[in-house]
Amino acid sequence: MSISLTPAAADRVRSFLVSRGQGIGLRLGVRKTGCSGFAYVVNYADDSQADDIVFEEHGVKVFVDRGSLPLIDGTEIDFVKQGLNEAFKFRNPNVKGECGCGESFNV
CA-CA distance, 47 to 56, in Å (whole number)? Predict the structure, then answer.
């Protein structure tokens, strides 16, 4: 089981945490939604929960709840800038399809 961050994503998370002034890492999960079934949920991690699995990449901790992990196991998180747009991008090997807008996925 693994979740990984590219150097660009790790740098962005670190800068978010510094500007926020608190937090111990990134929290990644999924929720049922959208036309394809699931959407990523990304937040700051201010603490560790009892059911968290913790991964560390490039000095940044990623906290994932046990229920979400089977759907996102093996995912690489990247941070990309294209013109004025910037966003986290997810390379999830479990995805079988995505909606047209890219907001949700199915496994």
Answer: 15
Angstrom distance (rounded) from CA 104 to CA 35: 7
Dist. CA 56–CA 61, nearest whole Å: 4
pLDDT in tens, 49-71: 999 999 999 999 999 999 999 99
Q: Please report, for residues 12, 81, 87, the alpha-carbon distance to residue 84 in angstroms, rounded to integers and kept in the order given.
A: 16, 7, 10
C-alpha 11/C-alpha 33 separation (Å) is 29
- Domains of the chain and any CATH numbers: 3-94 (2.60.300.12)
| pLDDT computed for residue 101 by the predictor | 56
Distance between CA atoms of 42 and 27, rounded to whole angstroms? 6
In angstroms, how far is CA 2 from the centroid of its own chain?
Answer: 12
